[in-house]
Prior knowledge:
mainly beta, Leucine-rich repeat, LRR (right-handed beta-alpha superhelix), nine-stranded mixed sheet
Amino acid sequence: MKMNRIAAGVLAFALVFAGSAPIIEQTGFIKPLTAQAMSAAVKSNWDIKKYYEVGDFTIQYVQSGYVQIIKCNNPTAEEIVIPETMNDGDTDFPVKVLYAQSFQDCQMKKVTIPDSVIKVGSYAFCNCTNLEEIVGMGGVENISEAAFESCTSLKELHLPDTLTTIGTEAFAFCTALTEATLPASVTNMSTYLFTTCTSLKTLTFSEGITFIPDKVAYQCSALKTVNIPSTVTKIRDHAFELSALEEITIPDTVKTIGEGTFNNCLFLKTVVLPSGMENIEVELFKDCHSLENVTIPDSVTRIRRNAFNGCDSLKTLTIPETVTRIESYVFYGCESLETINIPAAVTSIDEYTFCKCRKLPAIVIPENVEKIGVYAFYDCESLESITIPASVKSVGSYAFYNCTALKSAVFAGSMSELGIWSFAGCTALTEMQLPEGLEKLNNHVLYRCESLENLEIPDTVTAIDGYALAGCSSLTEVNVPASVEKVGEYAVGYGEGVLPVVAEDVNIVSESPAVQDFCKENEVKINGEGGVITPEQVDEITLGEYLHGKKPLTQGQFKGADMNADGVVNVFDWILLKKQLYINSDEEQPTEELQDPTGNCVPEIREGNVLAETKVRSDASAENDDNIIATLEANAAVRIIDNFGDWFMIEYKNGETGYVLQSEVAVAP
């Protein structure tokens, strides 16, 4: 966009020298003369339609009675002094305008701008990388877009009290500038004024300024001090994003702080928000990794999405009771958060609101909440108990997934359905009081709740979906109501894993024909009968297809394939089976690497560690998240047992297997 603007200016300049009438902007600070005033204006020997060379400058006379400098003809001079007036042979005319790009790319170290100049045009001194000192400029009213952009040697800046307008990126990329003060006279400021001024340490807005513009100090990575006067009422979007602020005082006159104002302020520790603001805007403090203390005033009614996302040093926060809405991702990744309240007027806990708040031990959900969104408390590893009030009518998928310390979950009211995987991986859960009116146990809803010993399934339930109660290894007797008409694969009576096996010590008690048929077909013990599994011989091809996720094993086949009797069937059992088949045959056992039925060599078993938090999948595909079966923490140990293209088949935890991308694993030498 910037190059387009520069190109347009160059084209206009070319047209002027080709004989067309010059097109000069004369709006804003210079009013057009009336016919009467023009007749009274001082006449000049200069033709307004022509350019003239005077000294080191190309200039143009403007009918209003002043001169504007079009171009500097001595770009290599170390010092440039712009005259206050220029003479046409008879009359002195003031120099009032430095035209767009007039000194761009010049090599001077010092420039003197007389008090007669009232406008510095767009890109006038852009990319004057040697410019260290600006003298004068005492009468300037307008500094246009990118006027001093990329003056990378400019260390000091003195703006006059006559200044009213500053254009976008006026001082952007002035990387040597250390301090700047905006005078009270300024009433019109555009965006990115000091963006990427990487040495700027102090920025002062004088008393009288009423707003702070968008991205005024964006990416000012050394900025530690910002002085905001009591006349300011609004701070616009991303004003101080990616700065080095450690603390800031915001006067109570400020009513609005824009989106992302302090986003990625990595050193910001303490903030007291002004008493009159109503919204904590989108990404206001996102990724402020040092933020420890925030005071929220009683005037706030809404906390918008991602407001505190990634504030992983924040330990406690008090939200005033005036707040009625907390949006999605607000506290996502606040890994140190230990104490927080949800105001009574809040009606929804949106998606990912408290996701990965790993140290949060308890939270009270108020009785006005009607919805708990997807992933709302995902990976809250310290959360010990939760009571869901009767007002809640919806709990989203993965809402409490992997809350590994959660011991008790009680529903005080009724609802028809819980989201998929909503309590999966809650390995410490011992008490689960399902809601009244529940019509369906969704897939994986209580998957791998391995400490759950008792569960009362409401007689309103008509369907139990796949893996709903799989991996509940302590749930040895399951009472399933007669109302159940549909049972999904591996729904109940099974262990954990992608292709789990029947848990031999589980007994299903049910009068439901659908449940009885399911148990008989899958050799699950029903009403104290059946469930005795006879091992069946399995060949290497069948076992290879199972290991590659292509075909399940019957319970008898699984028991027969478990060559080392560890309760898990994996590539180690395949190798043992292969060796046994050679031992029992007349063939000479091969010395080269074994190959599975798909032609892949079975590699030497290798040790490794995942590089970062990693999703384990049930098959070698990342098209969606439906096949995620586990999450490994960074540096978790794994055993690599096979490879498929870009994927490793790994063993983790207690013999569980799954797939991860090879790029996510560091293989031990």
